[in-house]
Amino acid sequence: MSGSEDSDDNFMPEQSVDDERTSIRAELSSLSFEELQKLKEKIGAKVYKEALFGKNDKKKPDGPRIFKRENKNRPREMSSKKPVPMFDVPKIKKREVRDPRFDPLCGEFDKKQFSQNYNFLSDIRMKDIKKIRAELKQTTDPEQEKKLRRLLQRLNDQHKASKKKKEEDASAKREKTHVVQEFKDGRQPHFKNKSERRVEALVQQYEDLKKEGTGRIQRHLKRRQQKLKKRSHKAPTGVS
What sections of 106-213 are H helices per DSSP? Predict the structure, then answer.
């Protein structure tokens, strides 16, 4: 009996508080909105809420909220209040384009030095010519033969142009040396004009062809006649 009486004593105050709060709510329900606002301003918002809803005994946690996963395979929940770190994009250095032809940092172009540095290309070109000639003897495909002949012709033209340029440079060097020597000897040097240089070049070309054989000379003369004939046909005729 004593145990039941103690439990009733503990239960009665809570029941009386609920009854009192119910009666307060009933009285407040009969008041107008304006009267409720005045009462709230008079007793304070905190007391007003406690009278209607009771005290909130729940306390906020002191430390930061810990987000836990119900399943370890789920992604971890992150707080929306924590700012997302900004991705640091590295600055790309602007590429500076330089033209070596007009850039003083690249130095001046030395034609003679350039030809000396890349003189090995002539040897490589001759090796390629020999290799293509060997492939021409073995190939039986007409299309492949046509490609190889076209490539061989281009390499031969490049080799001839390079050889001609070297000969012209050597001739100019000899002429310059001769002029300087005449100045030193106290004589008036003779400067060759374009026509004289052209005649000398033709004579030298004839001598080179003569060394290769008479057939080479005949083919060269025939080709030259064909070029002159084409030029004469293309030349405009006078209007009578």
Answer: 111-117, 120-138, 142-185, 194-212
